[in-house]
Amino acid sequence: MVDVLSQNEIDALLSALSTGEMNAEELKKEESENKIKVYDFKRALRFSKEQIRSLTRIHENFARLLTTYFSAQLRTYVQIGVASVDQLPYEEFIRSVPKMTLLNVFEAHPFEGRILMEVNPNIAYAMLDRVMGGSGAGMNKIESLTEIETRIMNQLFENTLDNFKEAWTSVIEIEPFMVDLEVNPQFLQMVSPNETVVVISLNTMIGDTSGMINICLPHVVLEPIIPKLSVHHWMQNKTKRNLGESEFIEKKIKNTFLPIQVELGSSDMSIEEFLNLSIGDCIELDQRINFPLVIKVEDHPKFFGQPGKIKKKLAVQIIETIKEDEHQW
Asked: What is the DSSP letter of 76?
């Protein structure tokens, strides 16, 4: 981050330049020399800042979905948020995780390769304790999980993959599924040690227990969809999606059928007059022939029209739209 100079520092710098104590050309030369940065080829940065920001947005959404999911499953206070997003060699990531931890390995078609979700032992056991009716106390006993406990943990995190799928929907449709559950990172070799991976660290709070959930995305997995992580692609897709939805809605509305009724008039008569009606009798309507007819759509007056014929069929011609305050019913 660039340091912001105070007003006194600015005044001192201007004074030094004006008196000749400092040379502007030397400052420019020093600045150009400082632009040289040391680059470690063993720790290649294969993702741009823009792509890292896109991955951060995706997993911020994933963190919100996980918060809702675990709150419902564990019935306790749960708060999950993105703490950091870094790219580093896979070997460095594996060395940073605890010796015994919960490692959920899964695949997500059409991605090629495996993705890793590492859960801090304290967090994992707090979840297990809540599922089994406990208070949610954190305790590291991952290395001695029973078969039943392993099955419960596997099912709990397997259901989080639906949230992972939903978080990635804005970029690509994926079908994630659990492959393995491991506790020792030394037995897990997903990619070569020098392969660049993106590690998304989620700060997790389960009741009074806190810890980290780390998601490891190898570069080889994300490589096919890296162009889709640009802001330009996101905005373009969003515009196309909005246009597509609008056209779909418009098409559906245009194909909707509505009942239309035209009233020729009405008449009131007593029950006795109605019972005495016979073939050939005429009923006088209260509609005058020089007045327009009311056309109703879904029983609501919408138009004025006049009766007529088209090719020996009765028809009505719309002559005016009824305003809301023009016709009261």
From this structure: S
Cβ proximity of 97 and 214 under 8 Å: yes
Specify whether 223 is located in the same domain as 100.
Answer: yes
- Residue 246 within a domain: no
- What single-letter DSSP state applies at residue 99? S
Please tell me the pTM assigned to this model. Answer: 0.58
45-93 pLDDT, tens digit per residue, is 678 888 888 889 999 999 999 999 999 888 888 899 999 999 888 888 8
Give the CA angle between residues 73, 74, 75 to the nearest 5°: 100
Residues 80, 129: Cα–Cα separation, whole Å: 18
How far CA 113 is from CA of 96, 158, 274, in Å, comes to: 22, 18, 83
**Full residue range of the structural domain in which residue 287 is found:** 260-321
Residues 169 and 311 both lie in one domain: no
Calpha distance 266→64 (Å, rounded): 61
Q: What is the pLDDT of residues 224-260, one digit of tens each?
A: 888 887 755 555 555 555 555 667 677 777 777 888 8
Tell me the C-alpha to C-alpha distance, in Å, between residue 53 and each of 58, 59, 161, 166. 9, 10, 22, 18
Say whether both 121 and 47 belong to one domain: yes
Q: Are residues 225 and 265 in the same domain?
A: no
Q: What is the DSSP string of 161-203?
A: HHHHHHHTTTT---EEEEEEEES-GGG---S-TT-EEEEEEEE
Give phi and psi for 170, each to the nearest 5: -70, -15
The SS3 of residue 118 is: strand
Q: Which amino acid is present at 241?
A: R
The token duo for 130 is 């809540």
Show the beta-strand stretches assigned E in the chain: 78-89, 102-109, 115-119, 175-182, 196-206, 209-218, 260-263, 293-297, 300-310, 313-321
Q: Which long-range contacts (CB under 8 A, 24 or more apart) does 321-327 make?
A: 322/294, 327/294, 327/301
DSSP code of 228? G
